[in-house]
Amino acid sequence: MQHVYIAACHEAGGIYHYTIDESGLLAEQSVTKLPAPMYLAREGDRMYALLKQPFSATKHSGLLTMYIDPSGNPVPGDGLYATRGLCACHLVVRNGITHVVNYLSGNVTRLPGGQLATHEGHGPHPTRQECAHTHYVGYSPDGKYLLVTDLGIDAIVLYTPDLRECGRLSLPAGAGPRHLAFSPDGKLLYCANELSCSVSIFAYDGLSSRLLETVPTLPPDFEGKNTTAAIRVLGDELFVSDRGLDAITVFRREGSTLTLSYRIPSGGASPRDFNVTPDGKLLICTNEFSDLVTVFARENGKFERLVQTISLPGPLCVIF
Predict the structure, then answer these.
(1) CATH number for 146
(2) Containing structural domain, residue 201
(3) Rounded to an integer, what distance in angstroms lies between the CA atom of residue 159 and that of residue 165?
(4) How far is CA 19 from the centre of its chain?
(5) Torsion on CA atoms 179, 180, 181, 183, rounded to nearest 10
(6) Taking the model in full, what pTM does it have?
(7) What is the C-alpha separation between 8 and 120, in angstroms, rounded?
(8) Three-state DSSP state, 53
(9) 147 has a pLDDT exceeding 80
(10) If DSSP codes are grouped into helix, strand and coil, which group holds residue 115?
């Protein structure tokens, strides 16, 4: 049975647990009420949730650990831990060790242990790059490095798992790197750039990685405000969402080249996150500003058929 978890970032929100029923639709199983969950991760029978601001004294975000019961429902676990920063927005878990990035504090922390690395600097954008803003953390395919994107300083910072900095990959000035995805063979690294609305492609080789190309995500005739958000790779396809255009752009991957394939209207406002089910049959999109989750089915090779809409308060993240 396929389990789907969606974080709804609202004071009255929480983790919404669904299964995919026999008709291919999401069926709600449970709701775990939590104040403003920002992002989720799962490892085995554990669920990890970032809470935006649970500590009234420090204003630091929190990491909540939970268990997943035999029915797939999150249940209370071993506690709530400070992330040592403001506005925790992304995390990665491996063997029970969690790394968290705090966007407003521009840092990354390791839990348990409490190691902390803080970035300094700024970029050319006067309001979005006035200081460091860490936005994503994830492992390299070989597990040797942690990669942290910093929207504020236009860099991807490489660390060892114990948070010793090893080097940096530079992005074009003003790009605002947000999230990363690797090709299935681990040879290409894709960076979704929030501010320049583009995807940068690196030939990945650890510290010797090379920037190959940066391609726009928006149509050439688009007018208005937009920020690029989530990025996913599935086989020979790359997906990236744009908030403003309110669509998911699908590129065909051919070697190191990205070629526009088609666009999926997200069905709501501000598609902050999306994910494709492991069997490749459904694409689930969280439209933050319209309080709406949209579900698309693949037909004739494309996710163009809207099969379901679900009302949730401020949906941000979807995982399996």
Answers:
(1) 2.130.10.10
(2) 3-245
(3) 4
(4) 21
(5) 150
(6) 0.97
(7) 31
(8) coil
(9) yes
(10) coil
- Region 136-141: what's the mean pLDDT? 98
Q: Which two tokens stand for residue 286?
A: 């969280």
177: Cα within 13 Å, side-chain hemisphere: 29
Which are the contacts of 242, defined by CB distance < 8 A and separation ≥ 6?
Answer: 197, 217, 218, 226, 227, 228, 229, 248, 249, 271
- C-alpha 130/C-alpha 122 separation (Å) is 5
List pLDDT tens digits, range 61-97: 999 999 999 999 999 887 899 999 999 999 999 999 9
Q: Are 149 and 178 in contact (CB under 8 A)?
A: yes
Query: Is 290 within a domain?
Result: no
Nearest to 312 by CA among 53, 54, 5, 3: 5
How many alpha carbons fall within 13 Å on the CB side of residue 291? 6
Answer yes or no: is 277 within a domain.
no
Does residue 54 have a pLDDT over 80? Answer: no
Closest alpha carbon to 139 in 78, 184, 182 = 182
Residue 169: enclosing H or E segment and its boundaries?
strand 165-170
d(CA 217, CA 238): 11
Please report whether residue 129 resides in a domain: yes
Which pLDDT value is given to residue 77? 82
Residue partners of 281: CB distance under 8 A and separation at least 6: 24, 297, 298
Within-domain flag for 176: yes
pLDDT band at 55 (very low <50, low <70, confident <90, very high): confident
Number of H-type helices and E-type strands within the chain = 0, 28
Domains identified in the chain, total number: 1
3-state helix, strand, coil in the chain (%, to 5): 0, 60, 40
At 182, phi and psi to the nearest 5? -105, 155
